[in-house]
Amino acid sequence: MNKVIQLNNRPVGKPVLDDFKLIEENFPTTKEGEVLLNTIYVSVDPYLRGRMSDSKSYVSSFELNKAIQSAIIAKVIESKHPDFKSEDIVIGNLEWKEYQTSNGKTLTKIDKNTANLTVYLGVLGMTGMAAYLGLTEIGQPKENETIVISGAGGAVGTIVGQIGKLLGCRIIGITGSDEKVELLKSKFKFDDCINYKTNTNLATAIKKSCPDGIDIYFDNVGGKISDAVLSNINKYARLPVCGAISLYNTTEVSVGPRIQPILLTKSATMRGFIVGDFIDKFPKATKQLSTWLNEGKLIYTETIADGFENIPKAFIDLFDGKNIGKMIVKI
Amino acid sequence: MNKVIQLNNRPVGKPVLDDFKLIEENFPTTKEGEVLLNTIYVSVDPYLRGRMSDSKSYVSSFELNKAIQSAIIAKVIESKHPDFKSEDIVIGNLEWKEYQTSNGKTLTKIDKNTANLTVYLGVLGMTGMAAYLGLTEIGQPKENETIVISGAGGAVGTIVGQIGKLLGCRIIGITGSDEKVELLKSKFKFDDCINYKTNTNLATAIKKSCPDGIDIYFDNVGGKISDAVLSNINKYARLPVCGAISLYNTTEVSVGPRIQPILLTKSATMRGFIVGDFIDKFPKATKQLSTWLNEGKLIYTETIADGFENIPKAFIDLFDGKNIGKMIVKI
User: Fold this and answer.
1) Any CB–CB contact under 8 A between B213 and chain A?
2) Is the pLDDT of residue A58 over 60?
3) What's the whole-number average pLDDT of chain A?
4) Where do you find CATH 3.40.50.720 in chain B?
5) Which of A70, A80, A131, B2 has the largest count of CB atoms under 10 Å?
6) CATH superfamily assigned to domain A2-121+301-330
């Protein structure tokens, strides 16, 4: 039998294990023009929370009692498709199933000799695209500018910080544990990093770490952390909004200080995006990120959970900040 | 003696007459290299409220017991400056004084044969620049798009709406009286207009007037009106923030629904600006606006108050929406 994880309930507030259910279904049969895939790595990402609600979000909502989808790396174990052969490794937006068939339309073959296949879910995947394109296209960093990154220890944050350094900027991270603060400063070479959980006056702490103000705020979290950052932005600041993880699980509309007066007095630009907005720039981004990766200028860290049945727990752990870097489930 | 209006108190909340004082001072003497000016028209603008506070705003705060400044049209009545002669008409950022001297550095000569000199405070002045450049540079309207304008009956709003129509867009205004609703639809050819004071559910009213959603929101007011608009924006919406008149007089930080989740799910861009941000584009804007004006494609309306001592009242009236179009004081 084939294992499948479905959406059992639409989460109210923070997702719980009972919002998911593991079922078994018949093993799929491969039709002409299809491939049979065996899941190897599953990406769990905060944005999936939006698709679990019934509201309009980035993309259509997941259906109840249907398999959830995310970015997945899989191995072709049977091919009745001319473009794929057995043992090929592919990436695509696939279902949380151990085995599944695909007509190949949304699959991309990846080099199976890559030392670490998960790089295609991280630096060379949507994570890297969001980091590089959000920062360069919206943030438009100039040398010696100050960049503040919230969710700095996450998949996107760790990459944004390094890219900012490579582009000559001063990088300040905001994260949720002293362990992450230390790691971001030592391993990822952030100029400074703030633990938002232990700093009672975050706006003041940010001001201290950013004596020249903030030119770019790469926002992964929203909420009160962002309020504190916004009170320190410079004239003509750019504010890419990549995520709002602090708000994904709120059950009421979150309220906070209105930001229009700040944007107005600072002539600042705030822009939300998803990576798909920049699809025409993926080749350029991939080329640059690969180069930096090969030159050893860009490093990454991953949090790997183990086992198909642990996908929901890994996903839920994102909201407790239990990951450092990209959260991936190895099947 | 020369009449002067000074800042008497920093307003708390909505400005009152007592925040200003009319004093008399000695008549100025004109030194070598200076001109003596007689004030003809004084522009009163909502943004001046920011300069009356002690906080950082667009520009430096006005000083207590010093004359207030704004855009003023004046006549040269004596010149000891090679570039100006008696009877020249000039515009500049000048003081609320009946007579004043200037070294001419910030003065611009205007054509004294212009039928209506006040056009240089309105359509061909900072008002027109803000409307044209905010809409075209940030809003980037495309034919058949829907533009919503708050503060639609004000100086900037009436011009933004007409420019939007000239560029082939559908224009929806939001304003504060049935009289303005009627005028905006009949005289300024807005496609629809909503009275925010009489519509109990503004978001629903906006949705009804914008069946295809909102592509551009030209925001002059901020606050709850903007909340209602934002709940109806389309993917890739552009949101120029030109003013926030509903928030200028608040005594506490105004709170409202956080907008980051909306910007994120809609890949929308919100950008604050002041006209000075686009100074290099003033000649292009002036040329286009003059052309439309001469062709009769752009019309304007003004609210003219009378008498030097009435400048403070005219300014205060802005916050009650007593003006239609540009508010000007004729001296």
Assistant:
1) no
2) no
3) 95
4) 126-276
5) A131
6) Medium-chain alcohol dehydrogenases, catalytic domain (3.90.180.10)
Mean pLDDT over A16-20 rounds to 97
* Binary contact (A267, B273; C-beta < 8 A): yes
Residue A77 has pLDDT above 80, yes or no: yes
Q: Token digits for A237?
A: 């600041």
List where CATH 3.90.180.10 sits in chain B: 2-122+301-330
The yes-or-no verdict on residue B57 having pLDDT over 60 is: no
- Please tell me the class of the B126-276 domain: alpha beta
Question: pLDDT digit string (tens) for A119-141?
Answer: 999 999 999 999 999 999 999 99
Residues of B in contact with A255 (CB under 8 A): 255-258
Distance from CA of B91 to the nearest CA of A (A): 25
Residue B113 has pLDDT above 50, yes or no: yes
Q: Which chain A residues are Cβ-neighbours of B260 within 8 angstroms?
A: 219, 222, 226, 241, 244, 247, 270, 272
Query: Which chain B residues are Cβ-neighbours of A273 within 8 angstroms?
Result: 264, 267
Average pLDDT of the residues in A233-241: 98
pLDDT tens track for B33-48: 999 999 999 999 999 9
Q: Do B257 and A260 touch (CB under 8 A)?
A: no
Around Cβ B113, how many Cβ atoms within 10 Å?
7
Check residue A216 and report its DSSP letter: E
Contact B58 A261 (CB under 8 A): no
Interface membership of B307 toward A (CB under 8 Å)? no
Of residues A254, A269, A220, the one with CA closest to residue B255: A254
Q: Two tokens at B151?
A: 């503060």
CB contact under 8 A, A243 and B264: yes
CA distance B58 to B145: 31
Token pair of A250 as six digits: 């709120």
Q: Rounded to the nearest 5 degrees, what angle is found at the Cα of A323, between the Cα atoms of A146 and A145?
A: 5
C-beta separation of B49 from B57 below 8 A? no
Average pLDDT over residues B280-306: 95
Domain with CATH 3.90.180.10 in chain A: 2-121+301-330
User: What number is the average pLDDT over the span A225-229?
Assistant: 97
CATH superfamily of B2-122+301-330: Medium-chain alcohol dehydrogenases, catalytic domain (3.90.180.10)
Question: In whole angstroms, how far apart are CA A269 and each of A149, A241, B269, B322?
Answer: 16, 10, 7, 31
Tens digit of pLDDT for each residue in A166-188? 999 999 999 999 999 999 999 99
Q: Is the pLDDT of residue A56 over 60?
A: no
Q: CB distance A264–B257 less than 8 Å?
A: no
